[in-house]
Amino acid sequence: MRYGRASGVVTAMAAIALASGTARVGAQMQADQFTPEYREVHRSYDEKHTPKIDAPDSVKRGQWFEVTVTVGAGSVHPSLAEHFVRYIALYKDSAEIARVYLHPVFSYPKATFTVALDEGGVLRAVAEPTHSAAWESSRKIAVTR
To answer: Mind listing the domains of the chain with CATH numbers?
Structure first.
């Protein structure tokens, strides 16, 4: 019974914060702490941060195929408790089609996605490490009938 009361008090406090706008202000203040280099996705090359996309140049429409993304086009990104890759996301043009979250120390910064496409376009891989904004790379893929 006491658990229910404490939980109700916390819920009521959260509702008051949301209604008054203080929760939003706190989030805004936190967002202001990030400098522009933490907001802008890196599209330049960096051997430890740029994702490397391994995928066929063309695939048949609707056929499943594998796309492997390794973070570090020239060497592998570290996976340490204090510096690791948070996630790897795969996009087809601007639509996110898959994402995997990684754990520090226990996760190698690599993910293999099995996907199917209806039409050609650009595959984009986005990887976000803990010490900078996300890094992106892309490659064209053709879809045949």
So the answer is: 2-33 (no CATH), 42-144 (2.60.40.730)
